[in-house]
Amino acid sequence: MAAAAGAFEQADYRDLGIDTAYEPVAGSLRVSDDGDRIIVRYLAFDPWPPMHFFSPTSRRGHISDVADAFSVALVRSQGRYAIAAAGEAAQAWWRAPAGADAGNLVEEARKALESYDAWLEGELCGIVTETFAGESGRLKTVDLTVEWPHVSLAIAEGMLQERDDMRPAPAPGF
Questions:
Q1: Largest alpha-carbon pair distance within the chain?
Q2: Nearest residue to 53 via CA among 150, 134, 129, 172
Q3: In the chain, N or C terminus with fewer CB closer than 10 Å?
Q4: pTM value?
């Protein structure tokens, strides 16, 4: 397995017999070897995005006409929401979800709005981890884990990098 995983390149993963459950976003594939198994982690666009992005019970907050202590002022720009500049009159408010970090509201609002824009474009991402076993050319999926945090590609790339940073260093040749 190590030789197959070590020789792995984005363009030829299907030549190794790896048939992923979702279409990987270009450049996002990560491959590692776990003894007799190959672990493939990648980003994928959500094929079934949520029908409504913001709701009062959402973990990403919601849009409201009323401000509270955990709100960020918004304006509408070209049919989208944007964080209002200092002194600019708010047209709506992003209200943080329960338990949000009060000291980081603007950054949380920025992430929520960026992901909302991705939702409007049909480009919400998730992280897929698949484990394959078998002989090269005949690999079978033995485990599949999918996280759909419903975030933009840029945020999902950051999340994938954080997971890479937490993993032990790969064996030589990877």
A1: 63
A2: 150
A3: C
A4: 0.72
Which helix (H) or strand (E) covers residue 165, if one does? helix 153-166
Structure-token match 């078998």, residue found? 134
35 touches 1 (CB < 8 A): yes
Cα within 13 Å of Cα(117), Cβ side: 16
User: What is d(CA 166, CA 43) in angstroms, rounded to the nearest whole number?
Assistant: 17
Report which DSSP code applies to 25.
Answer: P
> Measuring CA to CA, which residue among 151, 127, 126 is closest to residue 53?
151
pLDDT, averaged per 10 consecutive residues of the chain (174 residues), comes to 45 69 90 86 90 78 89 90 93 88 89 90 92 80 91 92 73 46
